[in-house]
Amino acid sequence: MRTPTADRTTPAAIETSGLHKRYGTRTAVQSLDLTIPAGSVFGLIGPNGAGKTTTLRMLLDIIRPTAGIARVLGSDPRRGGPALRRRIGFVPGDLRLEGRVTGRRLLEFYAEVSGPVAAGAIEEFADRLGAELNRPVHTLSKGNKQKLGLVQAFMHRPELLVLDEPTSGLDPLVQREFLQMLREARAAGQTVLLSSHVLSEIQQAADAVAVLSGGRVVASGDVASLRLAAVRRLRVGLVDAEPARIEQELAALSQVGEVHVISGPDGSVRVTATVAGDINPVVGMLARHRIADLAVEEPDLEESVLRLYGAHTTGAPDA
Ligand code: ATP
What we know:
With 319 residues, the chain is α/β, with parallel strands linked by helices. The chain has a six-stranded mixed beta sheet, sandwiched between helices. Strands 11-12-10-13 form a four-stranded antiparallel beta sheet, covered by helices on one side. The protein is globular. Strand 1 (12-23) and strand 2 form a beta hairpin. It contains ten helices and 13 strands. Helix content is 31%, strand content 30%. Helix 4 runs antiparallel to helix 5 (142-154). The chain has two domains: 12-221, 3-Layer(aba) Sandwich (Rossmann fold); 231-297, Alpha-Beta Plaits (2-Layer Sandwich). The site of adenosine-5'-triphosphate (ATP) has 13 residues, from strand 2 and helix 1.
């Protein structure tokens, strides 16, 4: 399955064909075909265990595929060696920073390995993310270690950034700054491949995405066209409502999936429902009642994937 945004005139920063990884009898990634154009931000999303980390590790030659081909910045990752690695900035999903050295010392060490880092670049990225440079890394919180990981990946302005769950542990303000860094990276012509199990994060950052489930791409395309984005969960509190009637009215709407209605004391009713597509008819129906509170949430990705493509779908159509 080719990613539709791949433009034949844009060179691909990453291409895979039939990439496959088995661990014993368990297949982690199945026949993955990806084309990621240079200069784009590409999101790999999927529930836990979907195969995201395994895919990224194969691209970086941390693990070897069972079958298939990968090309990263024009090279086979298995033969690219240190020269290829220096052109890539990587944040692993299981970033572990231990030891008594300070963040600054650690980054200076990485700078010697990764190749030229412009004067002031470490401080600039550390400032933007609020990274602690002067404390021993083993004393840092998970979020502060993650910030150092990001500085390390960005500081030599590599052609390709491969980021595995890059915002885990970061607070919302830092996440916003990180998204800005991604936009700047794209504007500078860098390519970004990032994985996440949070749909909204990818929606804000990526030009195109592939959705993995059970090791397979079950949907791919530009972010706006992905039907996944249209599945939401609604939570509503109603006053003086009749539970059976509410349930009936919601079930009559084609956009509404699962509905749970619970009646509370004093005539209050709590409703949760999944809504796929246009939310207006649902809100219109609810507005005929007295609403105490209303929240529209992103459902977890697992729920969206399973709802739209079935459990561990094999060969599901492109979105
Ligand atoms: P998460 O969001 O939880 O990190 P993921 O999408 O990154 O998930 P992977 O870590 O790539 O998923 O795992 C894909 C599948 O491969 C899972 O079923 C996992 O249990 C299995 N797996 C991963 N690494 C190994 C390993 N070293 N040995 C055996 N099975 C593994």
